[in-house]
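@channel sequence for tomorrow's demo:
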Amino acid sequence: MSIDLSNVIQVNTLKLSLSRIVDSVNGKMTSLFRQYLDDTFWKELSKVDITLCAGMPDTSKNLYQAMMTEGSNNGKLNRKQLRIAVAKKKLSLLESNQTDSLQVLDIIDLLAKHCLSDSAILPNNAESITIH
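C-alpha cells (generated this afternoon):
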C-alpha cells in the first residue's frame, strides 16, 4: 500500500487499519478499505446482526432529532443554523429551569463547533453500517 502522507483521508485510514478498525461510516475511507480488503470480508460484515443497547432516553433522542431538523436545509446539515438552534434551545431551557437536556445540547454544540467537516455533513455520504 503506497500512501500519500499529505492526504488526511489516507493517513487516517492507515491509522485505523493499524488498530484493526474499518471505518464504514466515512465513504472516502470505506472506498480505500474496499481497495485492500477482499469481498469475503464485506460479505461477512453484511451478515453481522448488531443489537445495540437502548442508548439515550426517548426525550434525549427527540431533542437530538429536533435539533438535526432545525439545523438542516433541504436534508443537509448547516453548521451555523444548527448552532443557532442549539443556542436558542439552551436559552429556553435555562430560562425555564429545565436543565435536564442541557447535556445533549452541549454535546451537539461541541460536535457542530469542532468536529463537523463539510464532507461529513453531506447527505448520502455514509455507508449503512455504523458500529461504535
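heads up for whoever presents: The first strand starts at residue 72 and ends at 73.
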